[in-house]
Amino acid sequence: MQGIIFNALEEFVLDNADMETWNCIIEETDLSSNGAYTSGVTYDDEEIVALATTLCEKLNLPLSDGLKVFGEFLFGFLINRGPIELKTYKTPQLLLQDLEGVIHKDVRRIHPDAYTPFFEYSVINDCEGELVYRSKRKLCSVAEGLIHGLAKHFSKEVKLNHIQCMHNDYDECKWNIKFS
User: Fold this and answer.
1) Is this structure's pTM higher than 0.85?
2) Are residues 130 and 121 in contact, defined by beta-carbon separation less than 8 angstroms?
3) What is the pLDDT along the chain (180 residues), one digit of tens a residue?
4) How far is C-alpha 131 from the chain's CA centre?
5) Among 154, 158, 169, which Cα is nearest to 131's?
6) CATH 3.90.1520.10: does it fit domain 70-179?
């Protein structure tokens, strides 16, 4: 996982709690990096899950709920730090259609060895579509949060129907998404 995601988690904790909480999470989690993250460096995927698990345990929150909340925060974090093209899209559907071509293309250009999840969005009509997500990480709860963050960014309401999930023995997750 790219260090920028760890930086986002730290900022999420700092925005919603404080540095003492972040330091406590770092101390309570077994981390090979010792909790020091640089945005351009790749870290073990297990570290982000371990940190999120420790955070959710402290908050007495189910991990999937915590990952969704973090995903929503992550969208805003990435829109402000990602490729400038992200800010040029006029609708959430246009951004979703071009997600692979903008964000992940840029990540792979800068970090050729980076593993990125796969997203494919198909438009059904002006306000509805279907999103496919594939990743060895199976962080579909984060993806769901990202969709909520996307809707919020465009001042839209969103309804998600998670019609298939990798956690239920499918090869990919699939959502029907309706924006209003």
Assistant:
1) yes
2) yes
3) 989 999 999 999 999 999 999 999 999 999 999 999 998 888 999 999 999 999 999 989 999 999 999 999 999 999 998 777 888 899 999 999 998 887 777 777 877 788 889 999 999 999 999 999 999 999 999 999 999 999 999 999 999 999 999 999 999 999 999 999
4) 14
5) 158
6) yes
